[in-house]
Amino acid sequence: MTGRSAPAVVPWSLRAWLGSIAVLAALVVGVLGVRYAGHGEPGRVDGWIVEPTADSVRPPWRRVALALDFLGEPAGAATLIVAVVAGCLLLRRPRAAVLVVAGAAATVGAATLLKHLVGRTIHGDGNLSYPSGHTAFLTALALIAALLATGRLGLGRAAGTALVLAAALVAGAAMGWAQVALGAHYPTDVLGGWCTALAVVPATAWLVDRMADARRRERR
């Protein structure tokens, strides 16, 4: 007799929706990457936001922006990952713990690779900016946490979709604001980072579920 299988990291009710969103997000990342490849100046949309606000935010909001920015730095990101992984293990969700590490790594890795492929810069040739890795990371972590909460609470399609979308929007908007306000990224870099997470996390979650299910079948 086999034990009860671990819950999937992607609830069945959300799989089709997340797959569609991932495809659309990947298309947006690609279109923006082609549009701004090799550029070193803000585009028209960027100019509406960057010129009056970039690196001009004042205390106390500057401290808020710096605190958010720290969450995307190695030390801050590692702290967040350890905390979320610990929470997953305490809740007995080992698949979710694997997804936290794999999803964050895959998302940041994809963003880093895209930066070198696109070659867009800000504040000089050495500062690759598209897409925003900070925004991609925090959005990815929020998506994973929302997926865990959806499965844990047994939410249906409508409630689960609303929670996942809200988590991604809040995390992406918060980190995106910080990156633009500090002059680290253009708004389109932030959008690219947000969409990178939306494209990579569902694909990584699907792989985690497939691999875990395959291993479970082999043990029978």
Descriptive terms for the model:
220 residues; mainly alpha; 75% helix
Element layout with pairings:
Elements: H1 12-35, H2 44-53, H3 61-71, H4 74-90, H5 94-118, H6 133-153, H7 157-181, H8 187-219
Helix pairs in contact: 1-8, 3-7, 4-5, 4-6, 5-6, 5-8, 6-7, 6-8, 7-8
Structure description:
The protein has 220 residues and is mainly α. The chain has 8 helices and no strands. The protein has helices at 12-35, 44-53, 61-71, 74-90, 94-118, 133-153, 157-181, 187-219. Helix 3 (61-71) packs across helix 7, helix 4 packs parallel to helix 6 and helix 6 runs antiparallel to helix 7. The longest helix is centred in the last third of the chain and has 33 residues, at 187-219. It is globular and about 55 Å long.
How far apart the termini lie comes to 9 Å
Cα shape: globular
Strand content: under 5%
Radius of gyration: 18 Å
Output the structural class.
Answer: mainly alpha
- Total helices: the number is 8
Average per-residue pLDDT, rounded, comes to 89
Output the helix-strand order.
Answer: HHHHHHHH
Q: What is the helix fraction of residues, given as a range?
A: over 70%
Report the major sheet: none
Uncertain stretches of 5 or more adjacent residues? none
Number of strands: 0
Q: Briefly, what is this?
A:
The chain has 220 residues and is an all-alpha fold. Helix content is 75%, strand content 0%.
